[in-house]
Specification:
Helices cover 70% and strands 4% of the residues. The protein has 190 residues and is mainly alpha-helical. The chain crosses the membrane at residues 48-66, 78-100, 112-134, 140-163, 170-189.
Length: 190
């Protein structure tokens, strides 16, 4: 038996396969220890937040590196960073109503502490670093990989030493493969 949907005929067997694949992907993408049916602040299931947040970070990082490489070399780097954060504040103000529980604004403001200042300092270093790195001639395809691997190696060590995160032999192998990968990506034939 087939079902007519729009211009497409869908066989019941195909629908069962699509349903099964969707269920499998949804369960596969679930964060460890999460329960089915939990809600997040956006009102959808926890799996969406788990995978959606990673996808948003990936899309944002791709856009970030592409756009920062396109910034004209004639603009002063500090002016450029200031302009970026003016736009960040405008965009943040526009999406603010979708994320904040209005009854908890004062409580959230009271929770602001030194860590936000630390993140701000790190972000300014990151912004200036990538902007100047690309201006000095780094390729988009190489610069991000080299810095990404270095960042991941350092964060792996910080996670292990400060936050007592597990470090397995597979993780160590991954670090070694990453270093080899950076060497191969950075290699230029003379």
């Amino acid at each position: 038996m087939a079902i007519l949907t729009g211009e497409f005929w869908l066989d019941r067997k195909l629908i069962i396969h699509i349903w099964w694949a969707n269920t499998w992907i949804r369960d596969f993408m679930k964060p460890p220890g999460s329960e089915k049916g939990n809600s997040n602040i956006m009102g959808s299931n926890e799996n969406f937040l788990f995978i959606g947040s990673a996808a948003l970070a990936v899309v944002g990082t791709i856009g970030y590196h592409n756009f920062i490489k396109m910034i004209p070399a004639t603009i002063d780097p500090i002016i450029s960073v200031i302009a970026i954060y003016v736009f960040v504040m405008i965009i943040s103000a526009l999406i603010f109503p979708f994320f904040v529980d209005r009854s908890a604004i004062a409580d959230n403001i009271r929770m602001v502490n030194w860590t936000q200042f630390g993140v701000a300092c790190a972000v300014v270093c990151m912004e200036l670093g990538f902007l100047l790195m690309y201006r000095s001639g780094w390729d988009l395809s190489v610069g991000n990989v080299v810095t990404g691997v270095a960042i991941n190696i350092v964060l792996l060590g910080i996670g292990f030493l400060l936050f007592k995160e597990a470090l397995s032999p597979i993780n160590v192998l991954g670090v070694l493969l990453s270093i080899v990968g950076v060497a191969l990506i950075s290699y230029r034939v003379a």
